[in-house]
Amino acid sequence: MKGSVLIIGGSIAGVQAALDLADSGFYVHLVEMTSGIGGAMSQLDKTFPTNDCSACILSPKLVECGRHLNINLLTLSELEEINGEPGNFKVKVRQHPRYVDPTKCISCGECAAKCPKKVDDLFNLDMNKRKAIYLKYPQTVPLKYAIDPQHCIWLNKPGKCGACAKVCPADAINFDDTESIHELEVGAVLMSPGFRPYNPEKLDFTGYGRLKNVVTSMEFERLLSPSGPCTGHMERPSDGKEPTRVAWLQCVGSRDENRSCNSYCSSVCCMYAIKQAVIAKEHAASDLAASIYYMDMRTHGKGFEAYFERAKDQGVQFRRSRVHSITPLAEDNLQVQYADEEGTLQRDEVDLVVLSVGMEMTTKSQELAHLLDVELNENNFIKTDPFNPVATSRPGIFVCGAVSEPKDIPQSVVEASAAALEIEKMLSDSRWQETQEAQFPAERNVFAEAPKIGVFVCSCGINIAGVVDVKDVTEYSAQLPDVVFSQNNLFSCSQDTIDQMAKTIQEQGLNRVVVASCTPRTHESLFQETLRDAGLNKYLFEMANIRDQDSWVHQNDPEAATLKAKDLVRMAVARVRGANALPYNQVAVTKAALVIGGGMAGMTSALALANQGFPVTLVEKADKLGGNANRLFHTWQGIEVRQQLEKTISKVFYHDNIELKLGTTVEKATGSVGKFTTTLSDGAKLEHGTTLMAVGGKPLIPTGDHQYLYGSNKQVKTLLEVDEMLLTDINMGSIKQAVFIHCVGSRIPEQPYCSRVCCTHAIEQAVHLKKLNPEMDIFMLYRDIRTYGQREAVYKEARSLGILFIRYDLDNLPQVNEEDGQLQVLVQDHVLLRQVKFNPDLLVLATAVVAHPETKDLAKVYKCPINQEGFLLEAHMKLRPVDFATDGVYLAGLCHYPKPLEESIAQAQAAASRASLILARDMVPAESITAEVDPRKCVGCGMCTKLCPYNATTLDLDTMVASVETSLCKGCGACVAGCRSDAIILKNIANEHLMAAVDAALMEM
Amino acid sequence: MAMSMANTIDIASLSRQVKGEIETKFPEAHIDFCLTCGLCASGCPATGLEGLDPRKFLRLLALGQDEELRSTKWIYSCTNCMRCAYVCPMNIDVGRLVMLVRGMRSKEERPTNLQKSCDLQKASNSTGIPNSDFVWVVGDVLEEVREEEPEWADLQAPMDKQGAMFYLNQNAKEPTVEPEEMVPLWKILHKVGIDWTYSSEWWDGANYCLFPGDPEDWEYTVRKQAETVDALGCPTYINTE
Amino acid sequence: MYYATLEGLRRFDIPHKFEFVSIITLYAQWIREGRLKVDPAWNIEGLKFTVQDPCKLVRQGIGDPVAEDLRFVIKQVVGEENFIDVWPNKSNNYCCGGGGGALQSGFVDNRRTYGKFKFDQLTTTGADVVITPCHNCHGQVMDICDHFGGTFKTTHLWNWIVKAMV
User: Fold this and answer.
1) pLDDT per residue over A171-189, tens digit each?
2) Is residue A874 included in any domain, yes or no?
3) CA dist., res. A198 & res. A195, Å (int)
4) Mean pLDDT confidence for A964-972
5) Domain annotation covers residue A942
6) Same domain, A58 and A191
7) What are the tens digits of pLDDT across the range C69-85?
8) Which residues contact A876 (CB under 8 A, 6 or more apart)?
9) Which residues of chain B does C5 touch, with a Cβ-Cβ cutoff of 8 Å?
10) FRET pair for B23, CA 20 to 30 Å: which of A434, A587, B108, B203?
11) How far is A542 from chain B (nearest CA, A)?
12) Are residues A187 and A224 in the same domain?
């Protein structure tokens, strides 16, 4: 069995899976069709719902991928052939020539500057030109130029041009480059080729392709992006004017069986349109009027509904109508004509129309699926199984990301980790067999050296340089005390700059480094690793955040921003001057996991870890396994849950590596990643290296305005109660009329989020009832139908069976009364605006999914945060969807946010994958910035022992002096703040460091 | 928003007969598929006329508002242009549904002239002139041109020419009210030099029987045309509009 | 009416030996083949033309190809620079408002309210002449032009072809 994996497609999903696999002991060949990885995410400007700069959060991952010892990046490559069987595939990969030697190219750009051949820039969707020799985009990995053989003059007429070869200072141009075939042996294959945005050219009524100021949403991302065709200044294509009125048209190429033949929902367009509207308003010099024309607003993810509400508060107009035609007006403006909710025609004049285009499978991906012999589903996406959402129809071939269904970035990242997990499970015997260990040069001891500080000032494209005078800051830095070197870089995090930085450190003999760029949250570890590559201890480093805290917030005052940048650099220099080399602490890993929660998510995680040979303790507070799944009848595909659930339960029950503790809860815990000690309610003390929280959620009990006679009338049920009736074979076929009310307890001020699952669940249930008795009249009272992705098919099926949907809003709730025991429901029809009266014999409430109140207490035990709504809060909503900021603790399932079974399962697999990263190692890095007691100052008051949340401080009762157990210390600083005699310091964050920075801040310039 | 009870639609007493009848005659009607997205209404010039639009029309069907469906004049303001069907994400052909609803009215309940145009065409042509008049008018106008415009002295307007390569229909409006409007086309055909003919029967290309809502009438007139052209043995039938 | 025969033959499965074509398709074909020679030189005053796409011929009949043919013929006949297109156009064009029997049905106010879309669209082009290759469109466009006080002329295509024939 091979210990290496082939990943096809350098999308964010492919990149995440590569990192997960490579970090947990597998060698990865990452095949990318274009000249650089990053996929569609690299083209986005900002990402919802956090408004993070997309390239900024993506870039560190790409760089990590590019530098990873155990990832072999094969760009300009395609799979050619596959043979063999799971565990032992033989594959051929064809790599097209780059015509630029990547080992020589220094990405200086001289070649592109001199190249006479202008070509449409595909990365910017042909909205501007690049050269025939090009860099895919500024942060691309590998950061190496490539020649476009279709357009290069020399390659088409040898001897005719060759300008690039003449100017290349590194002699990197190789016109004789040829394609190569890589014959590889891999244990598994993972498909992650991403998607293609729908091309609306054939939708004549949108005017796309004929009206210049009608653009796709992807084009608009590029128009907003600092690295886009108008360097982020938002100009409309026809005349470069900044638009002040912009319209977004939803469902272009989605939910349309007629012209686009894409009947599914693309899941992400509602959110990205809102995001674009909000960002466009921020970008605009004057007040920008943004209006979004939609059918159902689908903000079904974590934080989405709040984002939607915020957008409304910020003045984004939401118009519920699909627009028929865009008409040109004078001065290149456009008319949007639509029927409002009353049925009256309205006309809006706008400057720019953005078509919110959906996601499609590419032709290349279909060919790939064919080559790999994996099945497609009815929408031409890769077919998967709800109970193993990353497996394809062919064993050994896995899938993640948008190629199996339109989905957002977090879900793609979850699937990437889930797919990594499935591969780890399959190949666990070959772990570490084909990998190499990272080797750093011996560290230079700089203790006795006088400070020699280097300052690197980043332009971040125009993110910083557009506001801050970076040249001025660079020159200023050079004059600061002990600074011996300063330099400005376009993108400090790009591969070539990083390499150059390491070289500079060595050549200049630097012993302290400051990078003035963005946030340490995403980039600190990258730069620290660069120091290690250069033989410096990584703690001899400081970052000055002159972007998030400066250029972004002082856009309108460049002069003051430049002054502030100087202040920030001066402070960082002052701090780094006193920085000491710190030890790289490590903790021996206890190779066992604790999984809390015995629902589908918890069981999936437990099995995934147990199957890799790690002992698992599974703790469940109830006296049986299964959680909410016990009450579920069908998945949305109509597959019975019970059978799968029972299978899973029995696997858990009989697994040798799983110790099951029912009727048990967690009491308290100490320790941290690699070495936790948890005390359970039965008194047991567990030692474990990682913790997975999968404690689930529960249905809301309807109350108040949203009670609808629940509890007082027996004909009023919740979705789960009806599921239970179906599970117990209670005859439902005799019901004559059923009414469902959606959003009961969701999307209301008291409970503002969308519960994600209820629309699909309710509709699937209604379909089932209708099939039991086709004579049954069924009515769904809804606010927005949110059958995202391929779930749209269930909505269609329901309508095709004659189930009627009536929309209500919060100002006009359905009225439910009882007359002589007979239910009466009144609601206003949203089309005819007339009242409709029902007398159902079944009223089903699609109630919200809420977090267990106890989740909060458990979160405290492991120092994890929860959000306002009581759900656990992951480390990063976009790129770390199953991690916590606290290392070694992971989450999955409903305790994170309401989600359907297949997503819970994927998330559970992902959490297990992340946990495997720890469990697969003997040692894991521990905190270096730890607390230290100065015994001469300690008065033995013991305050620190009370304050330490990690139980890392102890008071020696003989000497009455406190001490810190370094392996337990997380460097939180609670003891330092609480020590009344100033006896405790944090290494490198002692008073002297902080005061140096404060003094520098207050220094007269 | 206050709801008035006066207009309340009581689900218990719905007949939904009109919908049922449509679905029997046209199983692909897909009325229930409607997403109520408004795309149709957004692009329809009849939106708002008689308080209706394509979306509301579908909703009347779905909610069984039969009386209103049978009485609304809106079905004659919808021009069957199919701009709605052109974009409807669910491929619902509202125009065709409108036709079916038109057809549910008795002939007496339909707009008089609409039904009359079809009845006339079923007899011969939509303006009701005798076929002999058509033949005479064509001959008369031709003669006039030949005489008055020497350069067109050999202009042709063949009638019932067996085996001609092209058959030409003729909207009845011209021979009836503006016969000189036939001439330009004759001249063009002459210039191109094709071998063509009119027919003295079933020559009208107006086809009004598509509109009152009786498919059998429409079928009858088209069948008559087809038989006529095949009887003449013309391999190509040119529609003049 | 093109669609009525085309769809009638199809829907009722009426047996026939002939090929059913539109005169517009033939005009374009004949001009391309050089069998019908036209020259826009007559249009020395630079009369501006626009067009109505009959729903039954274009959207419901042949689709964009015949709309392209129609424009090709007009441009050949009146001069490329003298043609101003409407928007929306071709398969997505508005109905004149007289289709579907509306011109015969008698609900004049509704028909004209509907026709206002067409009138505004045609007026926006600023063209002197509107070419309507369908009798129904012809009648309705004349009526709305008259009713709403338009200044454009409504004509068939053939008159202009004859004018341009050489």
Assistant:
1) 899 999 999 999 999 999 9
2) no
3) 9
4) 87
5) yes
6) yes
7) 999 999 999 999 999 99
8) A50, A57, A883
9) 205, 207, 222, 225, 237, 239
10) B108
11) 55
12) no
Domains with residue ranges and CATH for chain B: 15-105 (1.10.1060.10), 114-238 (no CATH)
Given A120, A148, A178, which residue is the final one in a domain?
Answer: A178
pLDDT at residue B2 greater than cutoff 60: no
Beta pairing class for A777-782 and A737-744: parallel
Chain C residues with CB-CB distance to A204 below 8 A: 64, 88, 90-92
Give the SS3 label for residue A293: strand
| Closest Cβ–Cβ partner in C15, C20, C159 for B184 | C159
Q: What is the mean pLDDT of residues A86-109?
A: 92
Q: What angle do CA A25, A29, A32 make, to 5 degrees?
A: 140
C30, C105, C113 member nearest B111 (Cβ): C105
Has residue A583 been placed in a domain?
no
Residues A394 and A319 grouped into a single domain: no
CATH of the domain at A286: 3.50.50.60
Q: Which residues of B touch A339 (CB under 8 A)?
A: 38, 41-42, 44, 47, 53, 55
Query: A206 and A336: one domain?
Result: yes
Q: Could you list the residue range(s) of the whole structural domain that residue C131 is in?
A: 2-164
Q: Locate tokens 């009608």: which residue?
A: A214
- A201 and A183 fall within a common domain: no
Strands A326-328 and A334-339: antiparallel
**Distances, alpha carbon A200 to alpha carbons A18, A268, A325, A1004, in Å:** 33, 17, 13, 59
A633: nearest Cα among A645, A624, A622: A645
pLDDT band per the 50, 70, 90 thresholds, residue B13: confident
Helices (H), A844-900: 855-861
Task: Domain count for chain C, please give it.
Answer: 1
Q: Spell out which residues of chain C touch residue A327, defining contact as CB-CB under 8 Å.
A: 87-88
When the pLDDT of each residue in chain A is averaged and rounded to a whole number, the result is 95
Nearest Cα to Cα of residue C105 among B119, B48, B46, B211: B211
Whole-number Å distance between alpha carbons of B107 and B103: 8
3-state secondary structure of A220: helix
pLDDT at B89: 98
ipTM field: 0.96
Chain B CB within 8 Å of residue A337 CB: yes
**Pairwise CB contact (< 8 Å): B87 & A205:** yes
Alpha-carbon distances of A940 from A145, A950, A951, A956, A977, rounded to whole Å: 63, 19, 16, 8, 16
Domain boundary among A343, A359, A375: A359
The pTM is what? 0.91
CATH number of the domain encompassing residue A125: 3.30.70.20
Q: How many domains does chain A have?
A: 7
Pick the residue from chain A with its C-alpha nearest to C91: A204
User: Which chain C residues have a beta carbon less than 8 Å from that of A336?
Assistant: none
Q: How far apart are CA A646 and CA A641, in angstroms?
A: 9
One domain, residues A50 and A79: yes
Residue to substitute from A198, A347, A782, A799, interface B, most B β-carbons within 10 A: A799
User: What is the C-alpha to C-alpha distance for residues A437 and A668, in angstroms, rounded to an integer?
Assistant: 36
Smallest Cβ–Cβ distance between B89 and the set A255, A339, A807 belongs to A255
**3-class SS of residue A626:** strand
How far away is chain C from the Cα of B14, in angstroms, using its nearest Cα?
30
Q: Tell me, yes or no, whether A719 and A611 share the same domain.
A: no
Query: At C87, which CATH number?
Result: 3.40.50
Place of tokens 């069709």: A33
Residue A871 belongs to some domain of the structure? no
Q: Across the interface, which of A321, A799, A837 has its CB nearest the CB of B11?
A: A837
What is the C-alpha separation between C48 and A450, in angstroms, rounded? 84
Tell me the residue range of the domain where A942 lies: 931-986
Interface-testing mutation among A295, A787, A831, with chain B (most B C-beta atoms within 10 A): A831
